[in-house]
Amino acid sequence: MSIFRVFQGANPIENLYDRINYVIRPDAAKLAFIYGAWVSPIFTYEQMVWVKEIFDQMDGKAFHHCLFNPRNDDKYNEESYFYFSVEVAEILSAFAERKQVLMAIHFDEPPGLHTHFIVNNVGMETGVRFDLWKPQLRYLKEQISAAAYRYGLSRCCKSC
Q1: 158 within some domain
Q2: In this structure, what CATH number is given to the domain that contains residue 23?
Q3: 55, 122 in Cβ contact below 8 A?
Q4: By the 8 A CB rule, do 113 and 33 touch?
Q5: Dihedral angle, C-alpha 28, 4, 120, 91, nearest 10 °
Q6: Number of independent structural domains in the chain
Q7: Which residue of 26, 55, 146, 156 has the lowest C-beta tally within 10 Å?
Q8: pTM of model > 0.85
């Protein structure tokens, strides 16, 4: 089974810049495999902070850091895995309200590719905060599992 994980933690605005740099670092991610949904992969930090400032949402949790790991024996190529990861970024962006999402595929760690997502938890249109509770996470995993199945990857939840 593939794994979709949301890292728990406070994730304050002070950590956003460092987390973005971790996700897009050149020793792990290739430039061609970085994508931004409603955000530029080059100016991600500035654009996410700008949305927070507009809606006066600079306090508290600032972002969600998610990870997708395909199962070790899944068969895929880099191009199809990239398109799958872009679809997951779009699913995360559309979930609850339009959110900014930075996506980068890492090639640095065995056993293979894995994808990081940084999701701004403030919606671009209304400024409403986005928090993931268990029922929402379950629904999100169902959507990601369906996408994984379409791309020939194993699902990330047993009943999906």
Answers
A1: no
A2: 3.30.930.30
A3: yes
A4: no
A5: 110
A6: 1
A7: 26
A8: yes
